[in-house]
Design a protein that fits this description.
2 copies of one chain form a homodimer. Chain A has 261 residues and is α/β, with parallel strands linked by helices. The first copy, chain A, has a single domain, classed as Rossmann fold (3-Layer(aba) Sandwich), CATH 3.40.50.12640. In chain A, 51% of the residues lie in helices and 10% in strands. In chain A, the strands form 2 sheets. In chain A, strands 3-2-1-6-7-8 form a 6-stranded parallel sheet, sandwiched between helices. In chain A, strands 4-5 form a two-stranded antiparallel sheet. In chain A, strand 6, helix 7 and strand 7 form a beta-alpha-beta unit. The radius of gyration of chain A is 17 Å and the shape is globular. The two termini of chain A are 32 Å apart.
């Protein structure tokens, strides 16, 4: 798409778009991944392309729940790896949990390519600086992050076909799953299995958003970066979480943008 | 993406998505075309995936202006050809105007492929039934639709590079251009050249929507089908057109959806 000037007001949005175009050319994405990204762009546009106060509260709540869970897992698809893979590896390092590649349109080739990309990202993150506030051995913590998805041997009850496949030592036995996805059925199935589900979804009206335990209505790159800060800070949960109120606040922002406020 | 059941509530949206995925595989689309489609999907979702009353008024206004113009032209890109090519050929046959392939990310290969696809669509439309209300020789009218874009020899003032290229006997000398696009610069440049610009854009907040003479805030497949009916009916313009009011009504619908109405 050509050079994007440093001063362009929508530079981060255009860079994200370019990353996805490149990743599609490398075979990392499903056919419809860019359509999903475009949907997100539109909602982010209406949200002002910034992390709202209610999204920040949701990120803090997600952090507290991930830190106190027994078996947290971060589930990633192609778009997530491409846009936020490194920050989610940082989150996994701090929380001490695995990352599972789990795809709606699952193929062995894309699973393998995404695991390779994640391993590269993990090496890069391990060799880089620790997040502010982290005092332990960073390279060791990062290198300990297990990357799952290959040879998946479990299944999500209530789903059919390839969408049901998961890893027994990952999503299968998790008590909480952080999953940036747009799949209402899967979100519902995971909740039905008794798991907490934290989603990152820019559409506050989607079934995924409405089914989740905690919905972070934010762009995944920004949300993952903010989540790194939160898990390092280690704040406790703030009491009862009202997910409907969080969604309602996101809808108010969109309605405000549409009303020209 | 697999079979889509006849009963699926979002069947038309999923079929459109599949058409684009197929077209991308055939090299008909720019890298970012599916992202643009996704943005449209999100806005259409908020608009209730139906043609609003104000969109219908805009379609009628567009029809009246196309029918009374001296040199109308329909400008198409890849997404438009794939999703609405046949109906736009019907519109061109009734109005008696050419169709010009004009691309933001212009390559000779995609121009050639899209012209081939349009020629196939023209043959199919010519061999099919005339629209209700049409009493003349349909095959002849359709076969007369000129398909432009190859060997473009003109330019749009105020734009740089490949985006400025157009056909002198098409957009270059048109007094009105129907152009389903998301390119605020180009819309502005065409208006600056003294042309009327009718756009089909699902984002009522976009620069394109705000710069156009008449903005149809609707999904291109639905809008093109409705436009066929309107040009055959041949209604006259209804007086002064207030494009800001039309955009405001679309925004009200989005705000209403966001407020849970």
């Amino acid at each position: 798409m050509g050079e994007i000037p440093e001063s362009h007001p929508r530079r981060s949005s255009l860079l994200a778009r370019q990353k996805l175009v490149d990743a599609a050319a490398e075979g990392l994405l499903a056919d419809s991944a860019m359509i999903a990204h475009g949907r997100g762009e539109a909602f982010d546009y209406l949200l002002g392309e910034q992390t709202s106060d209610s999204a920040r509260s949701a990120i803090r709540e997600a952090s507290a729940r991930l830190l106190t869970a027994e078996r947290p897992v971060i589930s990633v698809n192609g778009n997530t790896v491409v846009l936020a893979g490194e920050d989610l590896i940082r989150v996994a390092a701090v929380v001490g949990c695995p990352i599972e590649v789990n795809l709606y349109y699952r193929t062995p080739e894309r699973i393998a390519r995404l695991l390779t990309r994640l391993a590269e990202q993990r090496a890069s993150v391990a060799g880089g600086p620790a997040p502010d506030g982290w005092s332990e051995d960073w390279a060791k913590a990062v290198s300990s992050v297990a990357l799952l998805g290959d040879g998946a041997d479990g299944s999500i009850e209530g789903l059919e076909g390839a969408r049901a496949i998961c890893c027994t030592n990952g999503i299968g036995s998790a008590d909480i799953v952080l999953v940036p996805l747009e799949d209402g059925d899967r979100c519902e199935a995971l909740v039905e299995m008794g798991k907490q589900v934290v989603v990152i979804d820019l559409n506050p009206l989607s079934r995924t958003s409405r089914m989740a335990t905690v919905t972070i209505v934010d762009e995944v790159t920004r949300a993952a970066a903010a989540l790194v800060d939160e898990v390092v800070s280690g704040h406790a949960a703030q009491g009862d979480w009202d997910n409907r109120a969080a969604l309602s606040e996101a809808l108010d922002i969109i309605a405000g943008a549409s009303a020209g406020e």
